[in-house]
Design brief:
about 5% strand, mainly alpha
Length: about 160
């Protein structure tokens, strides 16, 4: 699993050692059902042939945004946004955030889906411009879902002692 020389396989261990996540390029099915992955059912029970959970699209999109920024094509909308800097990207994020709210107020699931996708995209462009890896966002979300531990200096003294 995941050596410096082997970029095909990467692994992470859960901070509580309850799970091990391994990302690898499989050579054939990886599920006992002979499906490409054990993630072959959506929550609505529809089958999918995707090998990885759909959330990985954000990682693939972030990679594409990085590539477009490196290529600096004159015809690339992403490269144009990146060249425009925080002001241009921030303006688009503001517009998209407003459109998300309008879609929600219109009670339109399709419109909301479309606008949130735009907001995600433009947010990923901003992260690339600021050189903040997507993994930093995952780590922050993970931190927020972990139980809060009281700071060591505010712990109560042992029973019978005064502060």
């Amino acid at each position: 699993m995941g050596s410096e020389q082997d970029n095909q396989n990467t692994g992470w261990q859960d901070p509580k050692p309850t799970a091990l996540l391994v990302l690898a390029e499989p050579d054939g099915p990886t599920c006992h059902t002979a499906k490409p992955s054990c993630f072959h059912r959506h929550l609505n029970d529809r089958l999918t042939e995707q090998r990885v959970p759909a959330v990985s699209i954000l990682t693939r999109l972030a990679d594409t945004i990085r590539q477009r920024g490196q290529e600096q094509s004159e015809t690339s909308y992403t490269a144009k946004l990146l060249r425009g800097g925080v002001d241009r990207i921030g303006k688009k994020i503001g517009e998209e955030a407003t459109e998300v709210v309008i879609a929600a107020k219109n009670n339109s699931a399709a419109e909301l889906t479309y606008e949130v996708a735009d907001l995600f995209y433009h947010s990923l462009v901003l992260l690339e411009h600021q050189q903040v890896p997507l993994e930093a966002i995952w780590n922050e979300l993970l931190r927020r879902t972990q139980p809060q531990q009281p700071p060591a200096d505010t712990a109560l003294p042992p029973s019978g002692e005064s502060q």
